[in-house]
Amino acid sequence: MKNKLRILSKDFSSILKNISRLSDSAGIRVYLVGGVVRDLILGKNIVDLDIVVEGDAILFAQAFAHTHKKQFKKHHSFGTATVYYDQYQIDFATARQETYAHAGALPSVEPAELSRDLARRDFTINAMAISLNRDDYGTLIDLHNGLIDLKRGLIRVLHENSFLDDPTRILRAIKFEQRFSFTIEKKTRCLLQTALRRGALRWVNPHRLRDELIPILKEPQPCRYIKRINSLGAFSFIDKKLRLTKQDMLLLQRIEQAIIFYLKRCHTHRKLEEWLLYLCAITCKLSSGSINHFVERFGLHKGDKIRVLSAHTNRSRIQRLRTGLVPHEIYQFLNPFSFECILFFYAYYPDKRIRKHIALFFSKLVQVRLRLKGADLKRLGFKPCTIYGTILEKLLYMKLDKGFSTFRQELNAAQGLAVRLFGTHGTLELKVNH
To answer: What is the distance between the alpha carbons of residues 418 and 416, in angstroms, rounded to a whole number?
Structure first.
């Protein structure tokens, strides 16, 4: 395992050496743990580091941050701390053991030695550690045969009550199975299915389920993850009757294609929250009451909630795009929606006319801007200033339809609009420098 540590970047190697030196001087034992060990063995890219401390992790992290003059943040309620080391994040946690008051409850924790900390983890492949201590630096600690399961590509729980103690592990098992193309070990699969039959996911605080589901929807090509969750009937935590059909899976595939279209044709636009489109597809058959209940119960952020509800309540309105519309009508119709909603509509309706209008909006209309500003109208002498918004809005629509290319064209059109709409006009003496 020392060879594995050597393949780390120079930055990470230096960080681990510094942690090791501090632990030696403080007389505290520290370990690299969990997913970072798994990914290191698999040869995956390492982004952040997770460190377990047999002792007070907050004090240790604080001393490390102070020594290296790095930003430090503590989390007293969890006995954890984070050090921001240049572009990296290092999470320090006190080694602990957990007990559950009842199935699905948040655990009670207390400090413990490393062996108990590893025993509380979800799967054997995540229950390995690498010593960072001077006497056995780089030694793999594998008390649950995680290395064997990793080599065999198996997802295995550490004990029979694992899914009942923490049902969110059901979603996590599926995530690791699909991410690494692994197999859920036979007995573990039986335990998972038993937990699902008992409705274990409904025992958990919905916010915890949200925090498991969203990262799954952010995985590359999430359709296969969604298909696997659906095949196990695990979407019942959203709604008891929710089961995706073949048509729903086709919609998910169209969403995947729509995102590719957006990335290729609209790469200059803002970054898309792709996971929201998949969530809209998963929940699109829920009744209006059920979807409102879902977004409230799961505590989606305000902006995400608005976009999910908007996608559901406005689907039927989008059929207006089947009719012949001039460019400004397309813009006027689509502009109030978020890009996520519009792209969801693009995927939801494979109708060529609808898609053509949405493609025009993304590729051209949304980028059109007026050169003429309200300040220009003021200098022209238009009064009152309350008319500026109306003039500029109408002017933008004219530009979308007629394709004005110069400031002078916009200026002349604004003059005509002002006279026609309000019976007022400016001096047209504004010097054209645009």
So the answer is: 5
